[in-house]
# Entry
Amino acid sequence: MINQRKVAMPEPKPGQHSVEIIKRLERNINGNRRAWQVFEDFLEIAERGLIDQPMHLENVATGLPISECEETIAVWQKLFQWYPRKNEDAWQNFTEAYILLVHAAEIAQRIDSTWDVVGEVFMEFGAPSSWQGQFFTPWSVAKMGANITHDDTLLNRRLIEAARRVSKAGGAKGAMLDSVALMLMSMGDDAKDAKTSEWFDRWFLPTVTPYVEPVTVYDCACGSGVMLLATASMFPAWANRYGLVRYYGQDIDLTCVRMARINMMLHGLNGYALKCEVAALRGNARKHGVSLEDIDRLALPKQSGEISPDSCAVLAPALVQNGDAPHRADIEVNWKNVKQLGLFA
# Structure
């Protein structure tokens, strides 16, 4: 549910987003909902908003009104019993808290601030359990650990292997890939000039990415996902955008799983950023009269793993040209045995 009242807030100072979010959530504490319950409700709102965002982007780009899926409508109906629709102040507080959460994620990398604002809010407001050892790692410590252990070697090797597979498929593009892949991977992002960077971003990555076996990162007690986020912050932005690195985790607390899932989407990980981009491109194409059947044949951006390495030699020439792809699992986070395990991917 989106509050229709105009939202006008001063931009928080760096590091103050969690404080401002807590202020909004505190206003929603009432005789029916305690602080930890208000936080749980906020997580549901944020999660559904992020899950529906690709659909909303496509609708807006198409020129259609924003619609809600059945699961989201069910969440609103449940929350209306605690925060009636006519209680505009409560929904205004949730709206502002959500905007602050998204804004914090948008500026995190630019100003090198924490990626885990929702985890900070949980520790201050969401009643963490000491019995379950819920003392989340501070962002500075998580970032230091990721910096010590980070290594791009495996990612570079996977890209080179994918380039060689495309090369074996034949064609001029394949030959070029085989000859430049090693050079590109030996150069850091800072060493690439403007032309090289543009070629790398616009041609090399979109061509090779669908054939790359993703690098996987796993946290067996993920909490809000802060260690996964710290690791993600060390990889190049293009590696996360195309899903060349995938982040997996589990936790015994469903609230932690939900926070980690929100964090994965907020920072565009596990293919989420690319899914939003494709949704906007699809919507723009529909607005200009392109049929859904033709849209499916467009060479829209793909994430890693969309094309099986084993079938690369057979499928590469056609797929590079017309954008067709075999059936695959949805890039959205998958829930399995969540009550027992709290698994997300």
User: Anything to note?
Assistant: Residues 77 and 84 are 9 Å apart (CA to CA).
